Each structure stands twice: as C-alpha cells, then as structure tokens.
Amino acid sequence: MKNNIVIEAKGIVKRYAGADRPAVDALDLVVPKGSFFGLLGPNGAGKTTLISMMTCLAKPDEGSLMVCGLNPEKESLKIKEKIGFVPQEIALYPTLTARENLAYFGSMQGLSGDLLKERISYCLDVAKLHDYTDICVYKYSGGLKRRLAIVVGLINSPEILFLDEPTVGIDPQSRHFIYDRLIELNKSGMTILYTSHYMEEVEYLCNEIAIIDQGNIIACGGLDELLGETTNKVLEAKLSKELSHDLKEKVESIPMVTEAFFNSKTMTLCSPSPNETMLALSTLFAENNIKVLSMSHGVVNLEQLFIALTGSRLRE
Amino acid sequence: MINMQRLISSIIKEGKILIRDKEALMILFIMPVIFVVIMSLAMRDTFKSEEGALLGIALYNQDQGEVGKKIVEAISALKIVQVYSLSNEKSVDEEAVKRDFAEGKYKFAFIIPPDVTGSAEDKVAEKFEGSKEGGAEKIRVRLLADPTLRSDHVNLVSSALNRILQSVESAILMKRLKVVFAEIGLETALSSGEGTNDDRIFSEVTLSSDGSGSGESMPSSVQQSVPAYSLFAMFFLVIPLSGTFIKERMEGSLLRLKSMPVPSWIPIVGKIVPYFIVNQIQIFIIFMVGIFIMPLIGGDRLDIGNSPLGIVLVTFASSIAAIGYGLMVAVFCRTSEQATTFGGVSVIILAAIGGIMVPKFIMPPLMQSMAELSPLSWGLEGFLDIFVRNGNVTDIIPELSMLLTFGLICLSIAIIRFRFILR
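YS: structure for the whole thing
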C-alpha cells in the first residue's frame, strides 16, 4: 500500500445469512490520504456494511482490505487506535454529561490523565459545547447531540474519521455547523470518509466521491471527473403542466428512453441519444399542447449522475 | 494497566447511569423496603388461617406389628398432613431419616420404634397383672419438626399424633379386656375411653428438631420477609441491568465501543461490579430496616443468627446468581420492552414458586418440590439456615453451591452471547 493511500480494498465481499445477494460484492476502492471521501448511495446500497468492514466491526468474507497500512483481520486493535467512528445513531449515554461521555469513550480509547483532559477540552472546543459541558445529554437538542456524537469520534486524534450519515434528522443550521467543522478538520490533514444519501452534502463537502449501488462501486473519482463521465446521458425538461398517465406512458415508450422519472412538472430521462429523444419529445408535446419551459441535457449534479448510472433515484 | 483504567472508567460510567435512573433506584431500594414492612406486619397475624394447608411428614415405621400399622393408617387419614411413607424403602434407616430431615428434605419426621406392637402389648399385660413398673417406662415416640415451622403448625401436628396414639392404646386395652372378660365368662359392651396420664402406655409425643435448633428458634415474619424480599430486590436488577444494556445496543453506544480497542470482557465486568455493589447495599439497607425500623413500627426485630460470614457468603452467591440471570436476559432480549416484561415477570414467577411471596411451608407438596427449582428459594433457605436454624458456613454449602453454579452458568451463557454480539 502506497504512503498516500489510507484505505485499499480489493475484491471484498460481504454476505449476510438469508440475503439473496451480497451486501458488498467484489468491491474495489482506494481512499487517498487527506481526502474528504464521500461514499454515496441509496439505502441498502452497502455503505454501512463497507464502513463496518473498514472500522473492523465486520470481517470481509472474501478479498483483501488494508486500513492505515494494517490488515483488519490481524491487527484490528491497532487499526481501532488509529481511527474514529461516528455511527448513524447518536451513540451517547443520555444520562451522562458531555464531559462524562467524552471521558468514558476517551478512556476506552486508552487515554488517561492530562492527555485525556486535553482531548476532552479540544473536542468540546471543536463542537462549541463549553456552555453545555456538565448538562446531561438527554437535555440537548438534536443538533447538540449530533455535534457531541461527532467529536466523540475525535477523542483519540484519529488518522481517519469515519462518519456514517452523521447529519440525519438535524436542522440546517446544525448541519452547516457540522460541515464547517468537518472541512476544518480535513484541511488540518485528517482523512474523512463520509457516507450519505444526501447528494447536496456530498457535493458540498467531498473532493473524492464513490457511488455505491447494490454492493458495488459504480463510479469513483473527483466530482468534476464523475460528472464529465456521463455527460449527455441525462435529459431534463420543465413543462407547463404535469403530464397525464397516458402521456407518461408515451414518453416511456420512446425507443431511445431507457429510464423516465416524473416529479410534478419536471421530467428526467435517461437516453444514450439525447438529441433524437429531444426531437421525439418536442413532437409529442406539440401534438398534446404541452409547453416545454426549458430542456437541458448533460449531467449537472450528482442526483442526475446517479440516475444516469443506476437508472434509479437515490432515495428510492 | 490501560485495561484496568478502562474497567474503572466503565464501572464509574455504569454507576453514574444507575444513580441517575430514578425508576431503577425505586425498583431496587424503595420497593423491597415497602414490601418488607408491609409483608412483615401483615404476615404476623394472617398466617394463622391456613389450616387446610398440607404439611409434609416423613413416616418411618420400624414396627412389623398391628400397632405400627394402625398408627400409620391413622396418620395417613389426617387431612392436614401429606405422608411420605419410608417404611418400605430398603435404603432407609433411622439415621438416614434424621439426616434427610436435618437437610430440610422433610418438615416433619415421625419415627415409630421397632417392635412397638410387642412393647405395647407387654405394657398392657403388665397393667393387667398389676405391675406398676410398666407405668414408669412408657414407649417413647418422637416427632421431628423443622425449626422454621410456625409453632401452631407444630402443635397442630403433635396434638393430632397424641390423639392417634391415645386411640391406638385404647384399642389395645379394649382388645385385652375382651380377652380377660371372655376368660372369666363375662360378656359386656365395652366402650373405649381415655385413661389418665399415669395409665398411658405411650408417652406424649416429644418434639425434637435435628439438634441444630430448638423450638424457641421459630422464624418470625420479619425473618421470613427480610431475606425473601431482599432476594426479590436483588433479582429485580434484571430490569435496570438489561435496560441499560439494550439501550447501549439500540442507541449505538455499543457499536461505538466495538469500534474502539476495548477487550470484550471490560463492558461485561464493568456492569457486574456496580450491580454487585448495589446488591450489597440493598441487603444492608433492608437488613437495617429489619433490625432497627421494624421493632419501632410494631414488628419483630430481625434476628440474624450467629454467622455473619454465612450471611456475607449467601449474599455474594445470591448476587452472582442475580447478576448472571440479569445479564443473560439482557443479551437475549432485543428490546427494553422484552427485557422489562420477560425479566420482570420471570423474577416474579421465580419468587412466587420460590417461597418469597408465599412461604414454602404452607405450599402443597407439589409446589414445595417446584420451589426447589428457584434460585430465590436457594438464597432464602441459605438465610433461614443461618437466621433460624443457627446454621454456619458448613450448613449453607448446598445453597451456596447451587447459587454459584446457577450464576456462573448464566454468566457464561451471557458472555458467550455478548462476544457473539460484539463480533
């Protein structure tokens, strides 16, 4: 494993008993050191399973995985000393205060004495929780709980911080506070692996993105690089009114259209021949007195990219 | 060293969570104290009204003759006792009966001496021949009664046995009279009656315990209720213990712990130690209530016997059994509701069948046998051995062994399951 790579997965497979397909299926992935790496995919795509293997919570059934240059099967304790993990759940003790939670998890990470106090102070500072230090967590707002949950993952000065959908269920203000702190941490040199099904936040935060679907990485790279890959495959039209059921069926039956999604007056189509599709649509709408307010083709955001790659919406 | 710091931190964390859980504190400390006060006061008077209850009595008839047979028949006909006839069992001798009785296998044992028929007939013959020597040496029969039994139960059984013996000896006298009258050619209607005490051929039934106690050391309602509800409270830790464990799983803290370099034994031992301490505090508080508060409010003072070490050992063993059971429930239940329902109900059932809510000695024999299955019953018998039977550490070894075995089996299952969860 090269020095500038912190995670390298080759052909890893993870199966759960009773499942009809592997949760992670022959997946290859490289996470560069110092990157803000986004793992994007719909629910059930395999993000949490993948992160579980990287954080030594689950073992791959097949393939090889290296984290911080170490093999999780043989050196899980060493890896756990080098990583911080923030699960989807708040994962705190509600009847303990912020300081007590940090002290407990810090000592579980092997910290003690002045070093532990110093790290607690640092974490409280990052989360701006000094005014709430000695208040039990159950009295916190959702945003405060999330902030504390994230900084608990920093208590051991990790080389890699894993965040599994850390902004679920919190208000936009708290979300942006978290984004800002994470960007600062990444700028200070920390590698961050961030899973989400919110495309906006992955677009906003991450400089490296992997799109995962059905246990496989279907695209990986920088944002611009990814968007460039699928240019001209997606076509979006804004219409004067919502299409009737019959018209939707006619759109779907246009030969070049591989997928069609309708959301009120907006229509998103996948097509390998966007120009021909646009022509066919113009004819169809003219015959049915539907005005096209705007029509564009080419991928402009991750949502469209995901549709182009998987043929399904991210949040389905 | 690092692991020791982790363990201490884990214990402190668990202690803080428990101290801040008002509902758990209510369950663990307030509830048993209320139970002890109410049940001790209530039981003092209400126990007098269960004459229909069956009392187990081991009957060992060594006599081959008619007298022994009649005594057995008469005792078997009593409605207040359940007879365990040992006469036909080859492996039984008088010492074995006494030993089984001393171990608490039977609440009563009634031993009919060998050749009591011959002795009785000789006594009657002596009376008819005018000898006064026979009156001095009466045939002695002994009733062994468990010292934990209430005095009115013991009196009930002993007076019933005395009546039976009087009836039997009257029958022997009548039979002899008929023979004498027939010899002198006199035919008359004879009716049985009770002779004076001097004329008796059987002595009054004498009470005896197994030698380790006396009739004076009967348990009071406080001696029954205090250890009973202390054990109930100790086992009720299943609710807060499983609750915190399941919350850790549901709220993700356990997942976070799994991602840290923490050996799997630390979270488990981190829970065992504080709850073990809680159990000791429970016992201390409830016993103090029994010793100091109960006399002030009209109850008896708790007499804790003469073996403080025995009390400590029973408390420790009961605590290990309770924590083991609590952890086992915790690792197998998936939700707090499951744990609260299953844990709470199972402890109540174990308490009910184990003689906590209803003392074992007023249970029918089948229920008394079922009580042996409950670890709460083992703990209670351990305490009663010390409080009432003046037992020492040697006497409570069987109860300690059962409690520790149960606790260690439960703990082993819990640890295996927990390691599986952590994987």
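YS: worth flagging: The beta strands of chain B are 55-61, 81-85, 108-112, 142-145, 206-208.
IM: good catch. Also The interface with chain A takes residues 2, 5-6, 9-10, 12-13, 16-17, 20-21, 250-253, 255-262, 266 of chain B (CB under 8 Å).
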